[in-house]
Amino acid sequence: MTGTNAPKKVVLAYSGGLDTSIILKWLQNEYGCEVITFTADLGQGEELEPAREKAVLLGVRPENIHIEDVREEFVRDFVFPMFRANALYEGLYLLGTSIARPLIAKRLVEIAAETGADAVAHGATGKGNDQVRFELSALALNPHLRVIAPWREWTLQSRTQLLAYAEENQIPIAKDKRGEAPFSVDANLLHTSSEGKVLENPAEEFPEYVLQRVVPVEQAPDQAEMVEVTFEKGDAVAVNGEKLSPAMLLTRLNELGARHGVGVLDLVENRFVGMKSRGVYETPGGTILLEAHRGIEQITLDAGSGHLKDSIMPRYAEMIYNGFWFSPEREALQALIDRTQEHVTGTVRVKLYKGSARTVARWSEHSLYSEKHVTFEEDAGAYDQKDAEGFIRLNALRLRLIAVRNARVRG
Fold it and tell me: What CATH number has the domain bearing residue 150?
């Protein structure tokens, strides 16, 4: 499909896997365009150099192959701001896939500007959320860029057709790709997500081999382990007293949580496009981080700020899940959330045991907790209990008037 409407240069989000390799070749064949690849190291734990070799094999010039380690940026600028909000989609999901997409889209747009590309492309299917996340982010950052989604355009509708296209175009196929994969996996430093095939029936327990990162809880150590997480202004900065960069800190928490079976979630969620899907998520470090952050907020955040944060959290989480990271409403909520974190500084001790991460102690120089005020012993005049009578009478006035009115109306 060459011609005046065809893109001249396309930046492709490229993993080096079968699907995006087919997309790379399809873009070349369909549009006759130059393809630039971008592969992000988000901490997925895979060797990325084979992606470079495969791109060269498929005709991409070496200078057009971008492989970047974005782990620190991912945790510092995306994961940590989200965790300041204690964000959970539908009360459970720590948004591991969702939060990675705006960063990938941001780099696609930036590379397009650097190279003069007129389009970007992604490998998300037309059934999922990722197509929305990639495209909303890209268009928010550059409304003039064309976004190409091959899964919504091509006629390749089955695994058999994809394999045939790969063989026809001499695209290397890993031997295990010739059979039906039991499930698909997406991974980054925050989590691992498994979906499809053996997981599609929510009435069946997922098989143990689905777990990629976390040990089954039955195999976790019989001895509990304590971990101390230190925060400064809402962000974790140290583990067990050792200062660490954002990515290294999350890596350390992942190691601790994974060996204790922490952070496994079996969820049937509501996709933005309208259907329900079942996934198994493994977020060991994130689960510890959330527990510790809520623990330090318990003593450093006042009730008004904390309750306000909790009330807006579901909306904030939904924005991220639906792909609106770069929207003005998410940025406005982020400013509010960040303002609440000014005194969220201190240390939390979390006990890890057989799949659980539980706060057992917390302390801070910024603490609002006053033992004098809550003690059951002599409080040395810190609190006059008689004051509570007026407080209760004023708060009860509205309720008393309603009760009197109702009795009068009922006659």
Answer: 3.40.50.620
Task: Tell me if 371 is assigned to some domain.
Answer: no
Q: Coil, strand, or helix at residue 337?
A: helix
Helix (H, G, I), strand (E, B) or coil at 281: strand
Phi, psi dihedrals of residue 246, rounded to the nearest 5°: -50, -50
Domain residue limits at 128: 9-70+97-177
Confidence class of residue 310 from pLDDT cuts 50, 70 and 90?
Answer: very high
What are the phi and psi torsion angles at 42 (to 5°)? -100, 15
pLDDT at 178: 47
pLDDT digits (tens, 9 = 90+) for 189-224: 999 999 988 999 999 999 999 999 999 999 999 999
Could you list the active site residues? Answer: 19, 101, 130, 184
Examine the domain organization and report whether 211 and 297 are in the same domain. yes
Residue 113 identity: A
- 127 and 197 part of one domain: no
Q: CB neighbours of 228 closer than 8 A, spacing ≥ 6? A: 239, 240, 241, 347, 348, 349, 350
Could you give the dihedral angle defined by the CA atoms of residues 41, 47, 53 and 57, in that order, rounded to the nearest 10 degrees? -90
Judgement on whether residues 202 and 288 belong to the same structural domain of the protein: yes
Could you give the number of structural domains in the chain? 3
Give the model confidence (pLDDT) of 27-49 as tens digits.
999 999 999 999 999 999 888 98
Lowest mean pLDDT among 18-22, 133-137, 330-334: 18-22
Spatial CA neighbour of 288 closest among 94, 98, 97: 94
What are the helix (H) ranges across 97-239? 101-115, 130-141, 159-168
Tokens of 89: 């989609």
238 shares a domain with 213: yes
Pick the last residue of a domain from 140, 162, 177: 177
Q: What's the sign of the alpha-carbon dihedral 239, 240, 243, 248?
A: negative
Nearest to 57, CA basis, from 111, 117, 15, 16: 16
- Is 2 within the bounds of a domain? no
Nearest to 260 by CA among 307, 290, 221: 221
| CA dist., res. 13 & res. 190, Å (int) | 19
Q: What is the CATH number of the domain that holds 347?
A: 3.90.1260.10
Sheet with 34-41, strands from edge to edge, namely 65-69, 34-41, 9-13, 119-121, 146-148
Which pair of tokens denotes residue 385? 């209990």
Residue 102 and residue 64 share a domain:
yes
